[in-house]
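User: Can you write out an input/output pair for a complex, sequences first and structure second?

Assistant: Here is one pair. Inputs:
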Amino acid sequence: MMPGLDAGDLRQAGFEDCFTELEDSVSSEEDVAVVGPPFGGKEALLDHVADREGAERRSLSSLDAAPDLPAGRTVVIDDCHYLFRRRIDGFDRLDAFLDAVLDADVPVVTSWNRYAWNYLVQVRAVDRVFSRQVAVPKIGRSEVAALVDGDVTFVDDREEGSSSITGTGRAMFRLAGRTFEVPYPVINMETIRTWREADEPIEEVIHGRVATLGDGIPGVVRAVWEASVEDGRIGTKTLYEPPKLEISDRDARVLQSLVFNEWVGHDELAGVLDVDRLDTVLRTLEHRELVRWDDEEGIGPEPAALPAIIDELERRRLVW
Amino acid sequence: MVSAESLAELSLGWGAGMRSVVVLLVAYVAARFVHFVLTKASARSVERRITFKMLIPVLKVGIYGVAVVYILGSILNLTSTQLLAVSGLIGAGLGFGLKDLFANVIGGLVMIFERPYRVGDKIQVGDHYGEVLDIGIRSTTIVTPDDTEVSIPNYRSFTESIANANAGSPEMMVVVPFAIHRDADVRRAEEIVEKALVTSPYTYVAEDRPYTVLVEDETHHVTVKGKAYVNDHRNEFAFKSDVTERVLERFEEEGIEKPRFPALD
């Protein structure tokens, strides 16, 4: 797994309002669902609540039974999306847990993967059990500096002078059995961006682009930053390039499961996914830097590639 | 009345003829190019696919319409009298046997503007069920689940009912029925079918796209019918297969029996 974020990181990244909302909810003794994307900082938020309240802290794995909820003090439970499996008998643990939350006389603070949560809202009405839902916010360029390792040299490698705003693309067009190359005009977005950023310091430009590449998700932003630093230097030309996802339906189903689960053991994944040659698919996705596979820790989506993966799965309507 | 003199004045020299052919060729290439560009654009997004594809016949009609108007007005330079004369000839032709072609063309225009279905929709017309590939001037082309292209004359939109499964949306409702023995545990069967529907990777669930399970009592058996929306209508059969396979497997594990039909004497 990649190194996690802590509460200090998130406070510096502008999560103060989120912390306040969470603290107020717990003080009001409400049951809380903290909902966010993979690598969004949910764990750090729950750590903060557990430390502040002196609460019992549990992190679920995919193999855990529904946790007991002891009486008397606030309970904090991370990764509740592991309580269900997308199969016919896959909701028993989740249903038992939701019943227990309704019966509990103490606040229960939980965290959920956003995409699993959106799915469970529709099929299990989980939002009716938790009176307060706290969404993990995104960060902008001004917060990136606080989150990443600043001990690097910024290289201003932006191109001088004006480039053309229009360019030419080429497409292959078939007519009467023959193939023709047809030029078509394209707008050069890179030139527009360079013009817009021309008067900005290079540090702000790079922070802004890293925030965009990471889609504002703290853990992903940090992964994109680390992938963009070369020999202690970072510039617009060294920035991480997201992969172009040309994937099969089988690849998409595997990625869908990993986005829902964030980090899961191989046997558990094989038990849920009815996919031929799963190991081959996983190795191929790992080779394309879309997936991380650690024999001890398990399998999960590659953090820096997560925005590209989500875009593709949303385009295919496999997540929403 | 058709004026013979006005028709005689209509001079269709080789030059006008060649220019008309060139204009029609340019219109053809432009229509093909538009089809190509919009098809490429539609492939980039499930949600916008149908929007892009339904523009194709509209733009094609527009391109050919402009070509015809240009030919009649600027190349052939028809006067109003000549236009009336040509219209009379066309009318006579319709009366003598082009009426079906004309009905198809009118049907095509009605289809484009009234939109009982769009390119990308899944429709049933008579015995034919499939995805609309193209709405042409004369006929609509659909591709069936067996990958057969069927051309349906557009005039049939006036004479037959057309069932549209998705009406412009990428998702559509799919019904998956199961027959079980009358003595089987119906509630458990319902639960299994419901969970199989919502756990399929192809399911799309939202406030306005709910799922449900219905139970129907038949003469010799009970039908448990699952209804849910699939995320892309192209996944209709993959979804059906996935749900059916998992439900039947679970029915067998839990002893939910299939119906036994009485022997016919």
